[in-house]
Design goal:
DUF1428; alpha+beta; 4-stranded antiparallel beta sheet; DUF1428 domain-containing protein
Length: 117
């Protein structure tokens, strides 16, 4: 089975195009280093829940939208090796303050699939 890194974050609507450009470049880097798939999705039907929801999870403000993304790898071992190469890639070096989103509110983690069809 494969391995998946998942991400959830809030992006200011006015910076969505800048985020898309950054994500496109980052996706190329991940794919060059061996990721099988790199997907970025912007919220389209994500209601604000009373107790839990995607917007609540990232403390999305009225002027922000939720982005849900994932990267697919062949295995956890491949993911670890690919991420080491990606983190050392000079194309992704930069100041976190210049990112088009608040990285402190980003949720991320690695997942082992239990069903793949």
């Amino acid at each position: 089975m494969s391995y998946v890194d998942g991400f959830l974050l809030a992006v200011p609507k006015e910076k969505l195009e800048a985020y898309k450009e950054l994500a496109s470049m980052a996706g190329e880097v991940w794919k060059e280093h061996g990721a099988l798939a790199f997907v970025e999705c912007v919220a389209d039907d994500v209601p604000y829940g009373e107790l839990t929801s995607f917007p609540r999870a990232v403390q999305a403000k009225d002027d922000e939208t939720v982005v849900f993304s994932w990267i697919v790898y062949e295995s956890r071992e491949k993911r670890d090796a690919i991420n080491a190469k990606v983190m050392a890639d000079p194309r992704l070096k930069g100041d976190m303050a210049s990112m088009p989103f608040d990285g402190k509110r980003m949720i991320f983690g690695g997942f082992s699939p239990i069903v793949e069809l």
